[in-house]
Each structure stands twice: as C-alpha cells, then as structure tokens.
Write the structure tokens for this entry.
Amino acid sequence: MSDKNQNTEFHHALKVDKDLCTGCTHCMTVCPTRAIRVRGGVASIIANRCVDCGECYRACPVSAIGVEQNDLDIIFRYPVRVILIPAVLIGQFSHKIPVSRIYGALSDLGFTHVYQVENTVDMVLEAYTGFKELNEIRPLISSFCPAIVRLIQVRFPDLVDNIIKVNPPIDMSALYYLEKIKSTGIRQQDIGLFYATPCAAKIAAVKSPVGDTESVVTGVINMNFLYNKIQKSLQNSETSENMPVTDDLLNSRGVMWSLTRGESMHSEKRALAVDGIRNVTELLENLENDRLGYVDFLELRACDEGCAGGILMTGNRFLTVERLRKMAAQMSLRDNEEQKKIIDGFMNLKEHSFLGNIEPRNIEKLDEDTSVAMKKMERKRRLMCFLPGFDCAACGAPDCQTLAEDIVQGHSSISNCIFLQQQMINQNLLSSEKAYRITEQIWGKDRLEKNCNKIGAEDENS
Amino acid sequence: MQYRYKIAGGDFSNAGSVASSVKKILRQLNISHSVSKRIVIALYEGEVNIVAHAYSGIADVEIDSEKIRIVLTDKGPGIPDIPKAMEEGFSTASPQVREMGFGAGMGLSNMKKNSDTMNITSETGKGTVVELINYFSTDVR
C-alpha cells in the first residue's frame, strides 16, 4: 500500500497516461518548476523537480494527467474504517442537503466513522502561537499547502527556514482520532484512517511527508471520486440513511481554514494571504529579494481560492467558498475554547504538533562543485547565442534556456532544436533524414503524418 | 565569466532587477545562501543608489571560482564628500524618493558591511564608480 520510505525521492501522485497523452506541450509550458519534457511523443515528469501542484492536470486538453488513488476496496481490510473529510467536501453540495445526508452517503460506501479534518484547527493555531514565540524568523510561511512547501524546497531553498514547523490539521486530526478510537480498546492495526483529498499535493504529502515525521493516515481517497458516489447516493433517497454527525468539533475557524485568508485572518500582525501558484512564486521572489518590508505571516496556497480550487474538486470553487462562508457565519457564536478543551481533556495533542526538519533541495544548481557549475554556465551562455530564444518548445523542453541547461547536463542535444537543425542542414552538417528521425524521437513516430483525429480537425470526436 | 547590466536613473520600478538576476546566477553556481545574501544586499543598495541619484549606470559583474567582483559605474552628480556619504543616516535623497521608501542614508554603509572589499571613486558633476568584491570561501555553511 502506501510506501512511506523517507529516503527515496519525492513521491508523486500525478502520472502521465502514455496512451492518452498527445505530447502537446500545454503541461510543459505551465509547469512552475520546469519539471516536464516531451520525449517519444509523450510528456514525462522529472521526479525531483515536480511539486505536485497540479498545474499540468489543469492545462491538459486530453485528460492525460491522472491522479493516483487507493482503490476503495482497500478500506475493507480494516474492521474500523475512518474517513476524514475537509470542509470543502461539504461546501460542494447545496446548503439544502443536510450534512448528515452526506455522512450517510459515506457510510453507504462502507466507512464506519466520519470526522472533519478541521476539527483540530484550534490546536494548530495554538501551535502557531507557540512556534512564533520560540522563533524570531519572519515572515513565517504556513506549512498548510504541501505544494507550496515543496515549491519552497526546490525553487526558494533559502526560505525553508521561514516555513512554520507545525503539522497541518489533517495530521493533527488523524492522530487525534486514531488515539481516540484506540482508547475504546480497538487495536491500531484494525483501524484504517482515510483522507478525502482535494488535490494531488496532499496525496504526495501523505505518502512521503515533507518533514521527517511519518503520517498516520492509511490511505487517500480522491474527492472527485467521492463526489460522484455521494451525488449518486443523494439521488437514490431510499437506500441512503442519514448518519448523525458525531464528535462535532467544527467551528467557524475550521470551516474557513482551507480557504483563502482562512489562516491569515487570525494573525494580529501584518499578514498576507496569497493564492495561485504564479502569484505565490512572484511573492516569494519579492520576499527573497527583501522587497516585502515587515510581514509577520504568509498564508500561501497553490490553488485559486485555496482548497476550494483544488484539482480534485468538482463543485464551482466560488460557490463552494460562498456556502462555507454562510456556514461559518452561522457558527460564529460558538465558544472559541470548546474545541481545544475537548481535545485537551482527551490527550496532549500539543506534543505532536511540531513538524520535523524541512530540507532545502536546490534544483537550479548546475553542479554541486562551483567551478564545474561555472563551466556549465559558460557553456549554457554560449549555447544561448545559437538557440533562437523563441521558446517554441518544439525541442521537447519548455524554453530555450531549459534546453541549453539540459544540453550541458547531458540530457539533450543541440540538434533537438528545429531551427538549429535547419542551420545544420544548410551547412551540410546534418542530413534531412537524420533531422526527421530526431523530430520523431521527440514527438513520436508518424507524428508528422496526416491525422484528422486531433482537436479542431475534421474527425475531432471520432 | 562576465555579465553586464544597464541601470536607468529614476526607474524605481526596476530597482533590484540586477540584484535578483545575480542572485539567480549564484544559485545556479551553488554558492551558499550566507555568501550570496551579502552580495545581493550590497548590489541592491548600489543599484538603488544609481536609480535614485544618477542619470544612468552600468553594473559589470565578474565571477570566477573564488570571488565575485562588481563594478557599478554611473553618470550622475557624483559624491562630493565620500566619508560623509558613508555615515549611517546621511542622505541627499529628495523627499519624493524617501516617500517611496528609499533614501534612508544606509546605502553606502550597508554596501560596506556586506562586501569584503569596497572602493569608491567619484568626480563631482560626472559620476561615481563603486567596486565591490566578495569571496566565496568565507562560506561557513
């Protein structure tokens, strides 16, 4: 099942379906870490560059980027089957549908316990305060979005120390409910803890956690899959029973947590909430160059509107946000200390709230050894004198500079550039047959043949 | 390895772009954060000085395996009294420039603090040349 080996490369939940992929470059050009190349007519993801943000999934016109998930059948290996659902799952459904109906649908699927992920946000907030008191570094960056944590590791390695080393609510809640169920006399091996995820990054984070702590989550169920099952169950009113909402610790802070400003709103000092991977990248560049002035806390999320915009969400993100806002407004009178008191009375979750170390993983360096890196850099700059600078991506790399880097690293060749091919043919350095073969190596055999099945062509849908 | 960047006087929206380009280069060369941070701060201050005071300038960046040498050459009013200009808090920046958050009078002293060697020559009415040298081997990380 979940291989939780810390020492291997990043685990990735995003996979390219080689049968569906047409090698169209859409994903390659939107990737914020330049982690995709086209080879043999299909996109391939470079594991140590990918941060699982899901931009490629959104950009793919033929749905060739898939998100792996555990088969639902695996839940039945466990006598006790817990599903932890984030508030955004509920937010996708009309407010006319009682939450107990959604719980009932999850029970129909075979889950014995349904709990909300954000039931422990007050413990997270308390841990934030504790961490802020012990650490002077500012701004602190939220550890909530795993795609952002990874983006910082690979593209902004100098900023890893700014990440607040506090477990996100999913890890806190998983631990809390595991302990809670164990306290009723059930053995740990009989408990399956599953998480309904709105995105790929959370899957990757469960399978290979960013800090050196191991997740107690057994497996992950994708939200789009659950959405369909719940919808079906709601249509079929006779078979589905309502399931009472037990252990309801959810408060307005929990409902809002995964949405934009859900965390930053609790900061008394200057805090910014930024969503969307491109906006976040721009902000981190500013932070790295000391252009932000004093900021105490940064809430950064890879998706627009936070988790409501996750790639596995089916409902419209703006409607989801609106519903959750309404829901939170109705809860605002709820005792602020209630959640903490109940959890504190049960266990000392505080002891488990801190994350392990997060290592920088600079992907931009050309070599470990500076003098070798310098030679490669010189070669790259020389190559750029010849490459056209159009960033057409026909070489199978997203832009000319990346091709130049790939060449100096020995992963590509100058003759992969279709413009330089023409030059080389002109100067009799390359035969046109060889150039054709090179193009086929990148774009796949017979790729240049007539084909009316592509989008926009005569037989588009056949 | 040599790089040359042009800096336009008065263009505050681009102030810092040279420093961030150099930062990216240093990252590709696997220069540690503790070393590159000082270089980038010193260069940024120098860049802002040109933007705030001069008409135009050039940043020449030279990198070898041991050090980085940056020469900032500008056409501008020059600095009549360099020791005075080096004092913390001394500034001739206009109120408009200060309003944008620049001109606190910390630029030159910050550059001195964040470089291993700094040399300034200036001719009143013509311009200023600042040379900054930082060594990579001070890497303690």
